Predict the 3D structure of the following.
Amino acid sequence: MARPVLSSLVNGVRGLLSAQLFVGVLAIALAGWTLTVTSGLIRERDRLRERVIQLEASMAERGIVVPPTPAVVESAVAGEQLYPGSVPAALRAAAEDESAPPPVDTSTGAEATERSARIDFSQVLADLFAPAPPMRLVVLHVRDAADAPQAQRVGEELRRSANVHVVVDVLTPRDPAQSGYVYFDGRQNRPTAELVTQFHDIARRNGVAPWSAQLRGAALPAQGEYTPDRLDIVLPPLPPPPPPPAEPVIATPAPG
């Protein structure tokens, strides 16, 4: 009787040590992954700061006054719509058809769907260690329908260079959405930053200065149509075109 009891005790201790070893390895892997992500974020922050300095220097050389840095509001304002405008499913389907031109959404947009209170811990663990899904859809939100053609041209070049589908959406008048970009998975920080950098470069090559300046990014939980493979860019308004030059007035000599 002593041997079975001793064997059970040894097996129990061995299982406990194995569980502790597994938990320790998991903790080390999690710490290493966190360190890698943090280092990447720090490098990305430094790269964006260098880009801001370069853009400000370039604007100063051209005689453009650099606008002051807006105040950053850390806490959300009550009633503020954090998610960008909704895009109808028909437009998203049309964007996936490469033969169709980039459509323009003139609808008013719908409010974001209600956040789900349930937490799937298995999905959380899977998302923690699995790679981010490839970026598939980029939505360009413009303030005025007059800005849509310019956004279509820039979006078409972005589609060819980054291999993503692009949809142009026209926001409603006095829409409270702030200019910036929003993605819906924390793992998409680097891919979205690269896409936004490409967008800035394309806008600068096309002479669209307001869209080549730095935009503030934010990550929100994926829900409803806001999937992890989607990037929304809310663009600042473009200045109105300059008025046509006035025709010179030719004075006619008085008779006699």
